[in-house]
């Protein structure tokens, strides 16, 4: 791709004129991975707390979509790979300094765990389900007895997966907008918020929906704090990172980011969830849908805008 230097006052930075043609696969993969991590974390957490029956949708219903989310996300990632037939090389070595290596191995752990969790709760969706072979019944019985151990592994690995979705960007030091440690916890919080939104959509219990509305409000407050902290860090850093922050602070990505991510994806859902807690009748699909929309747009905008600034050498 051809690059050109744009001079604006005393600020020099590089812009790729073709950057508006960017791939959708990676943001979608990160969104689905973060949402899956959020759902699995809440399933594990409330199982370990012994509240499976109280939070039925969180522990037994919503996790059934996680294998689907992960398969779609991994397929999107595969589509983005230039050399698709060599993806297996990620599993021939472990490099602790490589986010891709961490992500590959964490997904190798989380994906089968999500299928196992779905299998031991499949009768919650299909009450008449019956395994055809005795060995499958024995395996199900064994895994059910080990549910607490599975929940521990699933909970820890889901947190790593949620953080990894942000670290994957921040590892690209050549991109100033991505070169921040805030992206890891920010994407983790966004994934947890998306997971809480999905659980609210699946829940039929008013108390459970209210509980996750409260959880979501708290997580969104954390997200807003992290976003503010991220921009404060950029503005107190080098000129090229100030230029990167200005993409969202008066630059071309200002309106999409603050309207789609912050206002529609965070502030409006918080207001609606507070109104719901105050006994106003708010269809759950509205705040939950807005949270999911904001979470998706966060990744698309960070992925796209991050390519518009790079360090000068």
Strand and helix layout:
Layout: E1 4-8, E2 11-15, H1 25-48, H2 56-61, H3 66-80, H4 99-120, H5 134-145, H6 147-170, H7 183-202, H8 206-235, H9 239-245, H10 254-277, H11 285-305
Antiparallel strand pairs: 1-2
Give a verbal description of the structure.
This protein is mainly alpha-helical and 313 residues long. It has a single domain (4-308), classed as Formate dehydrogenase/DMSO reductase fold. The chain is 65% helix and 3% strand. The chain is built from 11 helices and 2 strands. The chain has helices at residues 25-48, 56-61, 66-80, 99-120, 134-145, 147-170, 183-202, 206-235, 239-245, 254-277, 285-305, and strands spanning 4-8, 11-15. It has a two-stranded antiparallel sheet with strand order 1-2. Helix 1 runs antiparallel to helix 3 and helix 1 runs antiparallel to helix 6 (147-170). The longest helix has 30 residues, at 206-235. The radius of gyration is 21 Å and the shape is globular. It starts with a strand and ends in an 8-residue tail after the last helix.
Main features:
313 residues, mainly alpha, Formate dehydrogenase/DMSO reductase fold, two-stranded antiparallel ribbon, 11 helices, 2 strands, globular, disordered N terminus
Tally of distinct domains:
1
Average of pLDDT: 85
Tell me the structural class: mainly alpha
**CATH-defined architecture:** Up-down Bundle
Class, according to the CATH hierarchy? Mainly Alpha
Strand line-up of the largest beta sheet: 1-2
Kindly report the CATH topology: Formate dehydrogenase/DMSO reductase fold
Query: CATH homologous superfamily?
Result: Formate dehydrogenase/DMSO reductase domain
The total count of helices amounts to: 11
Strand content is under 5%
Sheet having the most strands: 2 strands, antiparallel
- What order do the SSEs take from the amino end to the carboxyl end, as H and E? EEHHHHHHHHHHH
């Amino acid at each position: 791709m051809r690059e050109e230097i744009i001079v604006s006052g005393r600020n020099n930075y590089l812009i790729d004129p073709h950057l508006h043609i960017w791939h959708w696969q990676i943001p979608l993969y990160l969104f689905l991975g973060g949402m899956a991590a959020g759902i699995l974390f809440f399933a594990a957490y409330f199982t370990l707390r012994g509240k499976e029956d109280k939070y039925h949708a969180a522990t037994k219903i919503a996790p059934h979509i996680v294998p689907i989310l992960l398969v779609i996300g991994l397929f999107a990632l595969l589509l983005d790979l230039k050399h698709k037939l060599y993806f297996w090389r990620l599993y021939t070595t472990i490099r602790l300094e490589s986010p891709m290596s961490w992500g590959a191995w964490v997904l190798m752990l989380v994906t089968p765990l999500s299928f196992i969790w779905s299998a031991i709760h499949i009768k919650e969706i299909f009450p008449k389900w019956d395994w055809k072979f005795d060995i499958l019944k024995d395996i199900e019985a064994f895994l059910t007895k080990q549910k607490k151990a599975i929940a521990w592994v699933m909970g820890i690995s889901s947190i790593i997966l949620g953080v990894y979705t942000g670290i994957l960007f921040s590892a690209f030091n050549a991109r100033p907008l991505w070169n921040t440690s805030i992206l890891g916890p920010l994407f983790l919080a966004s994934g947890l918020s998306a997971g809480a939104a999905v659980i609210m959509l699946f829940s039929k219990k008013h108390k459970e929906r209210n509980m996750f509305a409260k959880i979501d409000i708290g997580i969104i407050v954390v997200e807003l704090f992290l976003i503010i902290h991220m921009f404060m860090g950029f503005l107190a850093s080098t000129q090229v990172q100030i230029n990167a922050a200005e993409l969202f602070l008066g630059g071309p990505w200002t309106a999409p980011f603050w309207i789609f991510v912050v206002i529609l994806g965070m502030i409006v859902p918080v207001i609606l969830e507070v109104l719901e807690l105050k006994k106003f009748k708010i269809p759950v699909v509205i705040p939950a849908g807005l949270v999911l929309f904001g979470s998706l747009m966060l990744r698309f905008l960070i992925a796209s805008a991050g390519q518009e600034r790079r360090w000068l050498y």
